[in-house]
Structures are given as C-alpha cells and as structure tokens.
Design a protein that fits this description.
The structure holds two protein chains of two kinds.
Chain A: H1 17-54, H2 57-62, E1 66-67, E2 72-73, H3 76-107, H4 110-125, H5 128-146, H6 155-179, H7 183-191, H8 196-207, H9 209-225, H10 228-234, H11 251-260, H12 268-298
Antiparallel strand pairs in A: 1-2
Helix pairs in contact in A: 1-12, 3-6, 3-9, 4-6, 5-6, 5-10, 6-9, 6-10, 7-8, 9-12, 10-11, 11-12
Chain B: H1 3-6, H2 28-59, H3 65-69, H4 82-113, H5 119-131, H6 135-165, H7 170-184, H8 191-215, H9 219-227, H10 232-261, H11 264-270, H12 294-302, H13 307-338
Helix pairs in contact in B: 2-13, 4-8, 4-10, 4-12, 5-6, 7-8, 7-11, 8-10, 8-11, 9-10, 10-13, 12-13
Classes of the chains: A mainly alpha, B mainly alpha.
C-alpha cells in the first residue's frame, strides 16, 4: 500500500490491513449492544403480538381477572400488585434513603462516612433471592406478631424488603448529588446565621433536588422490575386489591410462576409471559426516561 | 426558625455598639433533626444486621463439608449444595468467556476510536474518491465516507442504548434468553443457555465499567506513544489497555458477582430442576448439563413448606454470600493495589 499524503503534505504511516480488521471487530462488538436492545424489543413484540391475536388488547388492559387456566387475561391485578409493592417500597426507602444521604453528606465525620457508605451499598448488591428468604423467614413472622391474622404471603413484607433493596440506591445517588453542591453555598448560609439543619434542608437539598428526584424515580423503576423477593413474599395468587396485608401476584412473579412449570412453547400461557414482559419493559423504560429528563432539565451546574 | 430568612442586612454599626456574640443556644429542633437523620441511617444499618444475623443463625447449623459436597436430595437432612456450586462455577466461566471479550472490545472502540475526529480521514477519502474511477472501488469509498458521517450519531445511539440496557429488569433478559437461545437457536434448557443469558445481562455493566477505566488513563500516555510513531491501535494496545486493566478487571469481577446472585433470568430460561444430577465442571459440556445454580437451589428450598428446608436454604445463602464477599474483596484489593493515580 502506498503511503497516502495528508493535506499538509507529510507522509502518514497507515495502519496495516490487520489493524483495520481489529478496528472492525471492535466496532462490531459495540454494535452488539444495539442488537441486544433490538432483540429484546423484537422478541417481546413478536411473541406479544401472537398473544394479542388470541386475547384482545382492550380485554387485556381493562380485565380485572387474571386467571389463565380459564382463559381470563385481564392484566390489572398483576399491574396493580406491582404498583402497590413499589409504592410500599418507596414509602420505606425514601425516608431511610434521604435520611441516610443527609446524614452522610452533612453530618457524618469523613471517617465514619467512608465506612457507612460501602456498608449501605452491600444492601444494593444483595441477591434478591436472599431478600425474599429474609422476608419470608424473618420479616413476615415479625409482622405477624404486630398484626394478628396476617397471612404468610402479603404485600407489606414484600414491599418492606424491596424498600430495603432500593434504599442504598436512593441514599448513594442523592448523597453524590448533595456532595456536588459547592461548599461556598453552605458557608454563605452559615455566614448568614443558618444552622446546620437549615443549611441541609433549605440550601443543600434544593440545590441537589434534580439528583434526588431522579434517584427516587430510578429506585421505583427498580422496585417494579424486582422479581424474587416479591415472588417469595407476596405469593402467587392474582388479587386486585390495595390492601397491603393481602397476598398478591406481581407481573414479575407471574413470569416466574409460568417459567417454573413447563409451559410448552407456543401455548397461550407461554406467550402471555412475553405480553406481560412487554408491559413491564415499557413501564420501566418510561420511568427511566423520565428520570433522565428530570436530571437534564433541572440540573444546576455549579462551578 | 430560619435566622437566615428573618435577618435583614443591618448597616455597619459604629464600633462602640458591637455586642459580644451571644452563646449559641442549643435548639431543640436542631438536635431533633440531627437525631432523625442518625436514626434513619441507623434503621437501615440495623435492617442489614438483622438480615445477616437471621440468615446466619438459621443456616450455620446445617453448614458442613457434607453439605458442600453432597448431591441434591428430597430429604433435607441429606440434601447437598454441590450441584448448585458446580453449576454456578460453570455459569461464571461461560459468562466471563462470552461477555468479557465483547464488553472490553466495545469499550475500547467507544472510548478510544469512535470519538476520534473524522475530519482528516474524510478529506483523505474525498481526494481519493476524485482520483479513482473504478465503479466498485468508488462504491466502497462512498460507503466509508457515509460511515464517517453517520458514525457520531451511531455512537450516541450506542451510548444511550447501553445506559438504558443497564436499567432493564433482569427478568426481561430471561425472556430474551428463552426466546433466542432456547427457542430460536435450539439450545437445551441447560447451563449453556443460562450462561449465555447472564453474559447478555452483564455486558452493559462490563462496557460501562471498562469505559470508565479507559477514561481514567490520561490521553498524554496515548499521545506519547503516537508521537514515537505508534499507530493508534498500537498505542491503545500496548500502553492504554495495560494501564486500564486493573480497573477493567475490578469492574468485571463486580459484574460477575451480580450475575452469580441472579435468580429470575435463570428460572425463566431454564425452569427449576428437581433432578439429583451433578453437573460436570467442564464448560464444554454445559450444553447438555441441567441448569443448576446456587440461587436456583436456594429458591427451590425456600419455596418448600417444611421448616427443615428453610435451614438448608439459609446455609445455601451463607455460601452464596461468602462467595460474593470473596469476589468483592478481590475486586477491592485489585483496585487498591494496582490502580495508579496519574
């Protein structure tokens, strides 16, 4: 290959042919990640579409009974359960996560912070099966002592452990954005006579609000997609109810229940897990997009 | 209440009237708020402590050498964890073997090649295009020019896509694996199908971590190598990549430790196996081995009504958590020992 001349007239050393092949391979690897997304969408939509030829979409979204054995495919009970449990989780995780974030960012001595933060993150890395076991084995029995007559499977215990799982997500991300608030702002407020509580609540939290809200939104999306803890703790009986003391089946728990048994490929049940999977994918994707929007729109950049 | 809001700026007072600073009152609301955040942090830590102690108290009694080496059994007193352990090891090998090369290659491309300015290459291609007359050659050059123009858009798409993938619920990856690997490719519901699914699951995490590690290496290293006559690929391969390797490995270990704890995608891909088989450790046989894994076995035991199964489930959890702990420690040591500050 003759060395080409660049516009400045110098001789360039060019990569050999092998080197170009390497580059092509690298680019191909990068493209694979797009193929994964395409794969997910194609699989969910195509299998879901065959499901919807048998079950009308209107019936799917408005039906209040999910009873596949009798051919009743109304998704509301499943969707409702996912939302109820995610809300309980948020009720648990928002105070715990924000409290920890404010403590770590504004109050804790640096040495303590360096120990506490990774310990909290252990919770985030905890396999969800462990949290499911914890819910069934420890949380529900403890709740049964407080609330007599509580069943073994209930949304409350599931919500609490999922809340525990997403607490570090909120505390970690919120703390990061609180620490990104420049010290000059704190010092300015202190100089005006503000106390530490006022500085935390009136200066730091508002300045870091976009990050805090985004962390909460992301945590809720994670809670909706959570599977094992809710399967074990909330049970496998579809139940359209807002009562957290009852057992209910979430979207994810239904997918697990069908997968556990041998649903034959091509059967309506097999296709139904893709249909509800598509719903789950769309819901979590929408929530994530909202989170990204929030950060982008309301982020204040400090020098 | 907030003093910051109530105080109005006072004009400079004459020196004589300056009052000595009053001693700060201990405000109850201040103390209360501080205790509130301390207690909220404490509750979170206490829940973690409760989780770990309840699992350890329940499972420690069932933990023994026989438990680690025993076959699965319908009798909880004799049931062992060996198949699950072996399954998880094979899954780990397959997952790393598939996800690591692809993930690192993608990160190298996105971080080191895709973002290079294409202005020079574009001009060079344009002059070459004027000089060539052959139809096929011209078409090829046109394609390359077109690629240079769309490349920034494609790279942006890949960027957005990877961060979205990292937030997709893991059970969705299970559905993908079930439809593609088991349904279309016809792989049995086996360790191989499970390993491939986990590889797809952690690929975005590996790409993100590797990109961060590559970004931490200063550009001057690469520029120095290129100034001495190395091509970009040579500079990246011999200078940047080795410098970033500890960071890449740390990210990989953390990603794999996530894969080891995943249950939902494995259930979707492979179902729950009741057999008493002991899978071979050879990853090449994985296509024929039933899908065993630590979290699957734990789920199966937890789901049994008898209390004696709960105890061995807890013992299994101890083994799983110990494995994760070791992997995370290795990752931390690797990071502290080999990471360089530039």
């Amino acid at each position: 290959m003759t060395p080409a001349r660049d516009p400045r007239g110098r001789k360039r050393t060019r990569g050999s042919l092998g080197e170009r092949a390497v580059l092509l391979a690298l680019a191909a690897a990068a493209i694979i990640s797009i193929l994964i997304t395409v794969g997910i969408v194609v699989v969910l939509v195509s299998e879901g579409a065959t499901f919807f030829t048998d079950v009308p979409i209107g019936e799917f979204f408005t039906g209040t009974e999910w009873f596949p054995v009798e051919g009743k495919y109304g998704v509301l009970p499943l969707l409702n359960a996912s939302i109820v449990i995610a809300l309980i989780a948020a009720l648990v995780a928002v105070p715990l996560g924000l409290g920890s974030a404010i403590y770590l960012s504004e109050y804790a001595p640096e040495r303590l912070r360096r120990v506490v933060k990774p310990v909290l993150e252990v919770l985030a890395g905890m396999p969800t099966i462990v949290l499911g076991f914890f819910a069934l084995d420890a949380v529900t029995p403890a709740l049964q002592k407080i609330i007599p007559g509580l069943g073994l499977y209930n949304a409350l215990a599931a919500g609490i452990v999922v809340g525990l799982l997403i607490t570090p997500l909120i505390s970690s991300l919120s703390e990061d954005s609180m620490r990104a608030v420049p010290n000059a702002m704190r010092e300015g407020a202190f100089g005006l006579g503000a106390t530490r509580r006022v500085v935390s609540l009136r200066v730091v939290v508002p300045a870091a609000l976009s990050g805090i809200v985004a962390s909460i939104v992301l945590a809720i999306s994670r809670a909706i997609g959570e599977t094992m803890a809710v399967t074990l703790a909330a049970g496998t009986v579809p139940n359209l109810s807002w009562n957290p003391l009852e057992g209910m089946q979430t979207i994810t728990a239904y997918i697990v229940q069908v997968s556990k048994g041998e649903a034959t490929r091509g059967s309506l049940q097999y296709e139904s897990i893709f249909a509800v999977g598509l719903l789950l994918f769309v819901v979590t994707l929408a929530i994530n997009i909202v989170a990204v929007r929030i950060v982008r729109r309301y982020r204040t950049v400090y020098q | 209440m907030s003093t910051a809001e109530n105080s109005t700026p006072t004009p400079a007072a004459p020196a004589a009237t300056v009052r000595p600073l009053a001693k700060k009152r201990a405000r109850p609301s201040e103390q209360a708020f501080k205790w509130l955040v301390v207690i909220l942090t404490g509750i979170t830590l206490a829940m973690l402590a409760w989780l770990i102690t309840s699992v350890v108290l329940k499972g420690a009694g069932s933990l023994s050498w026989d438990f680690l080496t025993g076959k699965p059994s319908a009798n909880p007193a004799k049931a062992g964890f060996n198949s699950a352990l072996r399954g998880s090891i094979v899954l780990m090998i397959i997952t790393i073997a598939v996800a690591w090369p692809i993930g690192v290659a993608a990160a190298l491309y996105l971080e080191k090649f895709a973002t290079q300015s294409a202005a020079l290459a574009e001009r060079r291609l344009a002059t070459k295009l004027e000089a060539t007359t052959g139809g096929a050659m011209r078409a090829w050059l046109h394609t390359r020019l077109w690629w240079l123009r769309v490349r920034p858009k494609v790279v942006h798409l890949v960027d957005v896509n990877i961060s979205n993938l990292a937030a997709v619920p893991s059970i969705i990856y299970g559905l993908l694996g079930l439809a593609i690997f088991v349904g279309i490719m016809g792989i049995q519901k086996s360790l191989l199908a499970g390993g491939l699914t986990l590889a797809v699951l952690i690929l975005p995490i590996i790409i993100i971590a590797s990109r961060e590690a590559l970004r931490a290496v200063p550009v001057s290293i690469e520029q120095g190598a290129m100034a001495l006559g190395a091509t970009r690929w040579q500079a990246v391969r011999r200078q940047v990549f080795p410098a970033a390797l500890p960071g890449i490995l740390t990210g990989t270990i953390l990603a794999v430790s996530r894969a080891i704890g995943e249950t939902a995608p494995l259930i979707v891909v492979g179902g729950i196996v009741f057999g008493t088989a002991v899978p071979s450790l050879n990853p090449l046989d994985a296509g024929n081995e039933a899908l065993f894994a630590m979290p699957l076995q734990i789920y199966f035991w937890t789901d049994q009504p008898q209390a004696s199964f709960q105890a061995i489930a807890a013992a299994g959890i101890i083994v799983l958590l110990a494995t994760l702990l070791v992997m995370n420690l290795v990752a931390i040591i690797l990071r502290n020992r080999y990471s360089k500050r530039w």
